[in-house]
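Hey, resending since the last one bounced:
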Amino acid sequence: MIKKIPIFLMTTLLMSSVLLGCKSNEVSEQTNKNETNTSINESGFPIVDEKITLTMVGPHVGKGEWKDREYFKEMEKLTNIQFKYETPPRDDFPTKKQLLLASGDLPDIFYASDINHQEQIKYGGNGIFIPLEDLIDKYAPNIKKMLEERPEVKKAITAPDGHIYALPSVDDQPSYWHMWYNGEWLKNLGVTELPKTTEEFYNLLKRFKTEDPNQNGKADELPLSNHGGVGEFDSYILAAFGLTGSGISLKEGEVVFSPVQEEYKAYLEYMNKLWEEDLFDHESFSQTNPQKKAKGHENLIGVFADAHPAFVLGGSTDRTDNPVFHPLTSEFIDQPIVPESTGIGHGTFAITKENNHPEASIRWVDYSYSIEGADLLHNGIEGTYWEWKDANSKQERLIKDAPAGFDSPEDFRSSISPDWGIGVPIRRFAQDQLGWKWGNDKFGLWVREEDKEKLIPYETPVYPSVYFKDDELKTIARIERDLNTYVTQMRAKFITGESPLSEWNKYVKTIEEMDLDKLIDIYKKAYERHQQNG
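The C-alpha cells again:
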C-alpha cells in the first residue's frame, strides 16, 4: 500500500529583511515556505494523486518543443505532474536566466540551466534557490544513494554554507574529448603500433609529412591540425610533459600555475619544433572549425581532435579504423598521464522559493538518477528511438532508423529527449550496470574499449570544480582578466616563433608581477576547503 505524506500550509513567511548573518537559517527554513495541503506519495507512481502544474525554464536545443517531447509526456503519465515550459534558445538562455533571477519573476524549477557556483551561492544565499539536502534525504533515494556511493559528487555540489542548491549530471563511465589518428594514413605507411613517447610521435609526424600517406602524389599533408589554436588537443600534449591542465592545476598534489612551470616551457619548445618543421598546420591559429573539417574531408590531416573522427575525415560514423590517440611520455614522466574525467556537470536542476511543491519536485527529478529513469530520459521508451533485438531475452538493443524529416537517429532523439546538447539532471550508469548493450552501436562499443585500454588506466587527478567566496571571485576576475589574455597570446607567440623562448624568464617575471602568488593562494584555500568538505 502506498504511504501518504500530508503537507501543511505554514502560517508565516520568512521576512525579506533578515540580516546576512541569519541567511543560513533562512535558507534552511525555505524548503517549508510554500508547503500546501497536497498529499504526495512517498514511493512509487504517481507522485501525486491529484494532478499539479509547475513551471519550468530551460534552454531550447534540438527539434521540437519540450511540451511535445516524449520524455516529458511519459513523465507526466507516470507522476501526475505537468509543466508549463519556457525554453528560450540556448544561445540566448544565459541572458534570460539572469533577467529572471534579477527580476524575481521566477519559475518553479530551473532545468538544464547551467547554474554556476557563483549563482548558487548568490541566489541560494538570498533564498531564491531553496536548499535541497533535506529534501534529498527524505524524498530522493536515488540521489541519496549516488551521493553515498560517490562522495566526491557531494563535495562538488555542496556550497560553502553547507547547503546543496543545485543538482548535477553525473557520468559513472568516464567520457573524453578524443584525439584521433587518420587510420588510412597509418595503414598506407604500415604503422601497426601507435607512438607512446613524444619522440615517437614526432617521428610519425615526420613520416606523415614526407611519405605521402594520402597517396595523391602531392606534398600537401598536414600531420597535425587544429582550429582556434591548440585548445582542442593541448591537454594531451601538456600531459606528456607531466601537466594536468593549461592553467591552475595539480602537480604531485600541489596547486600550481602550469604556464610558469619548467614542464610548460618544454611543451612550448616541443610545439615550436613541430611548427618550425611544418608538422603543425600553420593555419591552426586562424582557421575555423569548418575550415579544418574541410581539409580533413580532403584527406589532408593526420592527427586531430574532435568528438568523432568522421566529423573531420568524413565517411561512415560506424568506422573503427581511426584509432584513439595513445597518451605519451617524455623525459619528465615515465608513465602516461590522462587528466581525470570527473564526469560531474554542475547546476542542472534547482527549485526556487516560488515552488509550492518542492517534495513532489525532488521526487520527480530523483527518477532520472535511477537506471530506469536515466534510460527513459536519454533513450525514450521502447519502440521510438530503439527496440529489442530479441524481445524475450532483452539483452541487446538496436537503434532504429530515423523517421522521415530527420537526418539521423541522433537527430531524431533530439526531438524526444531534452538530454541532447545541454546538461540535464541525470546519472549515466556504466554499461556493465545496465544489464543490456547496444547491438548496432559499433563505434560506441569500440571507443569504450579504446578508452579502457588507452585512457582510463592513466587517469590523474585534476584541480576540481570548487566554490569560491565572493571576495575571492572578485580578486580572481581582476587578476585572470589580463593574466589569461597574456598567457594565451604568449603561448601562440612562443609556438609560432614570433617570440623566442630565450624570453622565457621575462615572460615568467611578467606573470609573477600580475599578482600570481595571490591568485594561487586563493585557489589553494578553495582547494583545501573542498578537500575538507563532506
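The chain has a mean pLDDT of 91.

Sorry for the duplicate.
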